[in-house]
Amino acid sequence: xxxxxxxxxxxxxxxxxxxxxxxxxxxxxxxxxxxxxxxxxxxxxxxxxxxxxxxxxxxxxxxxxxxxxxxxxxxxxx
Length: 78
Fold this sequence. Notes:
Layout: H1 4-9, H2 15-33, H3 41-77
Helix pairs in contact: 2-3
């Protein structure tokens, strides 16, 4: 299975998701280390939506990889 960065570079995941995740990590760091940082409910909702998208994408990738692996084993056993 490809590494996340490789997937981003090949545009299998929209680059906008990568940008938003990067922003989410920046906001997380601000919230953790800057006592004056303001993170909104909308910021949190956006992160949740991006994570749900990534989970769905990765689940599809895992299923695809498992199917390829099964096909490879079946070809070897024939």
